[in-house]
């Protein structure tokens, strides 16, 4: 039986990029899928706790867990330049802004 979990996340913005941080405990880096489409990013991570050793399983309460979360993205993201890091169960997705989306400082004359 599959168990869908919405991971907790922090989203913040710097002058150069948007950053998403998601907590994905138990997920291996190879089991994470990130899909970026115009206007949307989806993140999926799977934890497979399938019984693998030779002992006879008597009770199963821990099974496949799937973390899944989607975020709407506004205009101004450089989709091709997006990158991700995964360390200590925290996934960090960096979404660089386009030049048009970066804040401009206007001087007063």
What is the level 1 CATH name?
Mainly Beta
Largest sheet: 4 strands, mixed
Strand order of the largest sheet: 1-6-5-4
CATH architecture, please? Sandwich
The run of helices and strands is EEEEEEEE
How many strands? 8
What is the CA-CA span between the terminal residues? 66 Å
Poorly predicted runs: none
Number of domains: 1
Write down the overall geometry: elongated
Count of helices?
0
List the keywords.
mainly beta, 4-stranded mixed beta sheet, 8 strands, single chain, elongated, 4-stranded antiparallel beta sheet, 0% helix
Describe the structure.
The chain is an all-beta fold and 109 residues long. It has one domain (3-50, 59-101): Immunoglobulin-like (Sandwich). It contains no helices and eight strands. It has strands spanning 3-5, 9-13, 17-23, 32-37, 40-47, 65-72, 83-87, 90-96. The mean pLDDT is 88.
Sequence-ordered SSE layout with sheet pairings:
Elements: E1 3-5, E2 9-13, E3 17-23, E4 32-37, E5 40-47, E6 65-72, E7 83-87, E8 90-96
Parallel strand pairs: 1-6
Antiparallel strand pairs: 2-3, 3-8, 4-5, 5-6, 7-8
Short structural summary:
The chain is mainly beta and about 110 residues long. About 0% of the residues lie in helices and about 45% in strands.
